[in-house]
Amino acid sequence: xxxxxxxxxxxxxxxxxxxxxxxxxxxxxxxxxxxxxxxxxxxxxxxxxxxxxxxxxxxxxxxxxxxxxxxxxxxxxxxxxxxxxxxxxxxxxxxxxxxxxxxxxxxxxxxxxxxxxxxxxxxxxxxxxxxxxxxxxxxxxxxxxxxxxxxxxxxxxxxxxxxxxxxxxxxxxxxxxxxxxxxxxxxxxxxxxxxxxxxxxxxxxxxxxxxxxxxxxxxxxxxxxxxxxxxxxxxxxxxxxxxxxxxxxxxxxxxxxxxxxxxxxxxxxxxxxxxxxxxxxxxxxxxxxxxxxxxxxxxxxxxxxxxxxxxxxxxxxxxxxxxxxxxxxxxxxxxxxxxxxxxxxxxxxxxxxxx
Length: 355
Known about the structure:
This protein is an alpha+beta fold. Among the domains are: 6-96, Immunoglobulin-like (Sandwich); 179-230 and 242-251 and 261-353, no CATH class. It has a four-stranded antiparallel sheet with strand order 1-2-6-5. The protein is globular, with a radius of gyration of 24 Å. 19% of the residues are buried. It has helices at residues 92-96, 99-103, 111-122, 179-193, 196-204, 207-214, 218-228, 234-239, 247-255, 265-288, 297-304, 306-309, 317-328, 337-352; strands at 5-10, 14-20, 30-42, 45-56, 63-67, 72-78. Mean pLDDT is 83; it is low at 102-107, 113-122 and 127-140. Helix content is 41%, strand content 14%.
């Protein structure tokens, strides 16, 4: 069965589900909905279950139509409580998650989902690569293992990847390098990399930089819409979508694996700081390329984010901003402090837009 492409929208009284099924027969489909559950079947498409953020009801006002040109079903479903706002309709991954995984309190990481992903990835693995048996030395069992990654939940990931580390991260031997030592080495590498001549050239010959500073990325218009609606009523705000995902982005969200993590308050704080660090690098990259991605974009984002490049674990927002500023003045093509402050302002705007 194929999970179809779909999107959801709403008005004060109805939830609208648009499902794209170009190879299905319009006369052969089934729809089930009750409470927060919605299911759809039209061979070979099967939307097993959407767990909605609000309740819908069958009262005779429901309606379904099929567009033969676009191959889409449009289904309008009455809300049980008229005027209720359904939050998170664009969070497709969350809507596709089984109900119990959404409501149950996570006690451990759900490793089953990652196991399924690994099995899928193994299909593309080249089994003809020459391999040698792995021999664990007696010394390695005595060395401490330091954690890193999302929520500092990972260790031992890079033990057998020393030859490939330079293509992924800048820190050497991260499994035996504590956080404080990683930070010291990062600061030393930044100090060694800083080029005063490059900085001064960008400072005085800044025509290209002034051009990208004038660029208006997607979040500028979205933020203007949000501010214009601040004086409007709740109903007008609820019916307007500030950010519209592309079909490629929606497809990505449908394929994301759902995971739950047990994070204490301290770990969550560090995760949020890491997110801001990556978001700052993203804002810089979008602006300097004026919204166009290229083959250097992943390198730029990785290099500007100490979270990605040095497995940094920040404890305060001040440290995040200083780290980002230093790396902008050391690594990318355009090294101007105005780009640092503009990226910070851009990140603030994106965060103000909400989830």
